[in-house]
Amino acid sequence: MPTQTFFNLPEMKRQRLIEAGFSVFSRASLEDASVSEIVRLAKISRGSFYQYFADKRDLYFYLLTQMREQWVANSTGTLRRHQGDLFATVRELAQAGFRDVSRGKHRAFYRTLFLNFSYRGTAQVNKEWARAYKAEGHPRTQWAEMVDVSRLNVSNDTQLRTLLYMLFGVFAQNVANYFNETAGKNDELVAEQYRQNMLLMFDWLQFGVEKETQEES
């Protein structure tokens, strides 16, 4: 994570470095990204960069952490507004998230993230976020206290956590498929296809897949 020196920078200089990171990581994977290009765009020296971050990976995961914090703030507020209704909350958050990754200002960053993420990268994200959760409290714990479990067929926190992983997996899978199929195609049509597919999968999780059949009289 950034050093205190980074946080002591004037807001404009700090923001310029953040935007430089987004710009470079939007065009290249973490492994291929260049510190030289980051410092050129940020208009700082290479030596200054290493006063703020240990390396490019440190900056990359800081950007992801900033996104996580925004998501946590939005998600808890949305869950509270829906009075603990998990599926209503997830549908709203997932659709807003899909709009953000497909049309938002950081679309290219998300595309590079989803198309290049590896097992190693996932493990590093989990490690960095676990450190933040230890200090701030895990959002899953906040959700567990706010979700109206009387609406759900779950009997303990482990089962609720499993359900949350499944719901997030539906979102991530459809975003990844969207980015994999957009090349040379109508972007809006592909985005709508996978948004609808995501909602269908949420319906399957909430209401089941198998049709009810009437017994023959």
Summarize the structure.
The protein contains eleven helices and no strands.
Notable features of this structure?
75% helix, mainly alpha, single chain
Q: What does this 3D model show about the protein?
A:
The chain has 217 residues and is mainly alpha-helical. The protein has a domain of 147 residues. Helix 5 crosses helix 6, helix 6 packs across helix 7 and helix 6 runs antiparallel to helix 11. It is globular and about 75 Å long.
Structural class assignment: mainly alpha
What is the number of E strands?
0
Largest sheet: number of strands, sense, barrel closure:
none
- Poorly predicted runs: none
Secondary structure tally, helices: 11
Which outline best applies? globular
**Which band does the percent of strand residues land in?**
under 5%
Please compute the radius of gyration using only Cα atoms.
20 Å
**Terminal Cα separation, in Å?**
67 Å
Helix share, percent = over 70%
- Summarize the helix and strand pattern as letters: HHHHHHHHHHH
Mean pLDDT, to the nearest integer, reads 87
SSE order and pairing:
Layout lengths: L3 H4 L3 H17 L7 H8 L3 H7 L3 H26 L4 H18 L3 H10 L2 H18 L2 H8 L10 H25 L5 H21 L10
Helix pairs in contact: 2-3, 2-7, 5-6, 5-9, 6-7, 6-10, 6-11, 10-11
